[in-house]
Amino acid sequence: MNYKRLLSCLLTAFLFVSVQASANTELKPLPVYNEVAKQLFNKLETEHYSKPIIDNRISEMAFKYYIDDLDPSKSFFLESDIKTLSRYKDSFDDALREGNTQVAYTIYNLYQKRVDSRLNYLEKHIPDMVKHFNYTKNDTLPNDPDKRKWAKTEKELDTYWYKRIKNSALTLKMNGDDNNKIIKTLTRRYKNQIHHLDQTDSTDVFQIFANAITATLDPHTSYFAPRASETFNINMSLSLDGIGAVLQADDDNTKIVRLIPGGPAAKQTKLAPNDKIIAVGQEGKPMVDVVGMRLDDVVDMIRGPKGTKVRLEIIPSKGSQTSKIVTIVREKVKLEDQSAKKDIIDVKRNGKTYKIGIIHLPTFYSDFAAIQAGDKNYKSSTRDTKKLIEELKKEGIVGLILDLRNNGGGSLQEAVGIAGLFIPAGPIVQIRDKNGHVTALGDTDGKIAYGGPMAVLTNRMSASASEIVTGALKDYGRALIIGSRTFGKGTVQVLQDMDKGQLKVTQAKFYRVSGESTQHRGVIPDIAFPSLIDTKKIGESALKNPLPWDKIHATRYPTYWDMAAYDPLLEKRHEERIKHDPDFIALEDQIKAYKEQEKRYKVISLNEKTRKAEEAAIKKQDLNIENTRRKALGLKPVKSLDDIDPKKDKRDPYAQEASNILLDFIAINQQAAKEAKAKQASSN
Fold first, then answer.
1. pLDDT per residue over 358-391, tens digit each?
2. Which residues, other chains included, contact 539 with Cβ-Cβ below 8 Å and sequence gap of 6+?
3. pLDDT digit string (tens) for 401-454?
4. Which of 121, 342, 346, 618 lies 20 to 30 Å from 664 when distance is taken between CA atoms?
5. Residues 6+ apart with CB under 8 A from 57
6. At what angle do helices 56-70 and 202-214 cross, to 10 degrees?
7. Is residue 357 within 8 Å of residue 401, measured between CB atoms?
8. Per the database record, which ranges form the PDZ domain (predicted)?
9. Cβ atoms 104, 172 nearer than 8 A
10. Which of the pair, 481 or 249, is modelled with greater confidence?
11. Rounded CA gap, 126 and 313, in Å?
């Protein structure tokens, strides 16, 4: 069949089917949720940190967020639909206040019609489409969501869908699937989405509507309907076995947001934030495509009995977009897996070897069950870290690094305890509540576990309680901060019960002893390392509508070292060193390569030959970078990146260079002390 004729037929068919009535029954608000709406309105205005006035300004933002949540890729609504629906942009605040949420259902029912008609058509006609796709034509699919606009006509939207399906088919073809398997996968994929649509009920619509409102206040205030509330509480208590990853719906995909330190996924080392899960397979069973599936259903598939295996087919967030399968053994995230651990890094200088101790702290933990049971030997991050410090001192360390990379937070009390190990006494963090009252928490025992030179190692995933410790030690001049700017999560949430479900609401903000908030900006390191983590995509500032950075009055606290005075010389020595460091050279090359690849993927080629050439070039580029690094280190080259076992390659260039920087700091201080002593002697 002629390509243009096929496309014309398909577009005409799309145009016809798009005006057909939906088979789904229109949803209506349940009376109980109208009452919850009024309750939510009151709680947000009185309980939220910012004391918001929910008015037309909030309503207009919520309207936009609601539309974005329903149709994030602008795949179903037309520009004319949005113009028609815009009459409701000032109605969201009234709907919440008055407990009349019909507006949310009116918008949703139109969305449901558009989705139902298109997906049902696709399900029926995918076989014919796949059989006639021509992969030799130089078609392209724009892939920059920030630049995508609402389609003006059905024909424009149909063209987009034709290319989108062709891209999906080509991706599967390049993964080795024949036409029959491609047809089966895509048909099942759209059946999943139809099933998802059919499963959506009035409660789901209310939750989407409610969270469009809460999202206008900050990204951490959320409403959980009863089922979502149950899932949230399960996640908080870690009472089900899984892979130890925080997942999020991202258009039709399931995206990895964060890996839990000590969890199976983090141990496995082949998953990363922003990777997309496209299929899940149980042990000994075929993979099940999960594109278009509800997030809670995907989570249910990933969870399972402890000790069993689950396979995830993922599309990596960086590098080649060819999917790969990762096998993970399910298990609970055990306290001991998240416990503090020690290590020693040997640094050779001028014929001598210096020992730098490093304490890896994945989270701020405390065994509350053991405490309640009266166990005097209960585990906590502060107790364990103190014990490890004593062991490291006996082993003759000259400096200490506290490694808070990927530490997403935990117990506030433990964060205060950890910081208190390195100062005799003093404030650690200030907390400002919704009424403007400021409370300072601090260390009062007058004791110090380690008073020597130290550094804190951070990355973009160091968040919340990690930022409290990092900020305190920076303000006191007690530690060099090395690595990346931290996440920027400086708010406190409280979970409140409602008539139906729960509300997680932001009620306070963290501030450093200097008065600076950790919110939004995070903590800026003294010496910054290059990072593969894109701060535009990960971190508080990358989230929707974060609360701003601000400052309050500083508390009284002493300073130990003026770290800013050391930074220029330390930075100079660091830069000179990494110019010749194979790991950092490879890291810089990889960052540059990923940026180039990201630009390239903003327009996706639908030509098979071009796509294969692009994928081959990316794999070759990544392999060349790795083998250049390996050659410089005296390691054997590999034929494929898949041949590398991350568990055997235990090199940690960040920790190694942090040790070098800390030793530079020690040497500068020793030299300054010698010069001062000599000056004093000469004056006498």
1. 999 999 988 887 888 888 888 899 999 999 999 9
2. 460, 485, 487, 488, 522
3. 999 999 999 899 999 999 999 999 999 999 999 999 999 999 999 999 999 999
4. 342
5. none
6. 130
7. yes
8. 233-303
9. no
10. 481
11. 23
* pLDDT of 126 over the 50 cut: yes
Q: Are 539 and 522 in contact (CB under 8 A)?
A: yes
Burial of 37-53, coded b for 16+ CB within 10 Å and e otherwise, reads bbbbbebbeebbbeebe
**Token pair belonging to 318:** 């960086």
**CB 515 within 8 Å of CB 551:** yes
Name the more confident of 79 and 247: 79
| 170-174-179-180 Cα dihedral, nearest 10 degrees | -120
Residue 413 identity: Q
- Per-residue pLDDT tens digits for 515-554: 999 999 999 999 999 999 888 889 999 999 999 999 999 9
Q: Rounded to an integer, what distance in angstroms lies between the CA atom of residue 520 and that of residue 528? A: 18
Read off the pTM: 0.88
**Residue carrying the six token digits 């009349």:** 100
In the chain, % of residues over pLDDT 70: 93
> Which residues have C-beta within 8 Å of that of residue 126, sequence separation ≥ 6?
165, 183, 186, 187, 190
Distance CA 378, CA 326 (A): 36
Q: What is the DSSP letter of 643?
A: G
Q: What H or E segment, with its residue span, contains residue 515? A: none
Catalytic center residues:
464, 475, 489
